[in-house]
Write a structure and sequence with these properties.
Elements (H helix, E strand, L loop, with lengths): L5 E2 L13 H10 L1 E8 L5 E13 L3 E7 L4 E6 L3 E10 L7 H8 L1
Length: 106
């Protein structure tokens, strides 16, 4: 599942921006809920409970996740996550591939 929900563009010029990648991969493959503090583009800090769906490598690593606060899928930049905790609570799989997600939501 991780291979199907991770896109990676080799980007050796960019510095490492997050230490949360392996924890998010673990949560994604085991369907664990994640609690995190997230700072948005405007500098607003919020606490989120999310269900990780996919990881994308662009200029920064991005996480696609179901956000329980906003009740919708959202993109999160990994370098804006200030605290992350993987819970043992599980969530039901979202039942679609990454391509189906893009076809449906973008």
């Amino acid at each position: 599942m991780l291979q199907e929900r991770t896109t990676y563009r080799r980007n050796t010029e960019q510095p490492r921006t997050s230490d949360n990648l392996s924890a998010l991969q673990y949560a994604l493959t085991n369907l664990f809920v994640v609690e995190m503090n997230y700072t948005n583009e405007s500098g607003e800090l919020t606490e989120r409970m999310i269900e990780p769906f996919a990881l994308l490598s662009t200029e920064n690593w991005l996480l696609i996740a179901w956000c329980r606060l906003r009740v919708e899928f959202r993109f999160f930049r990994l370098d804006r996550i200030t605290r992350l905790r993987v819970h043992k609570d599980r969530f039901d799989p979202h039942g679609m591939t990454l391509q189906e997600y893009f076809d449906r939501y973008h």
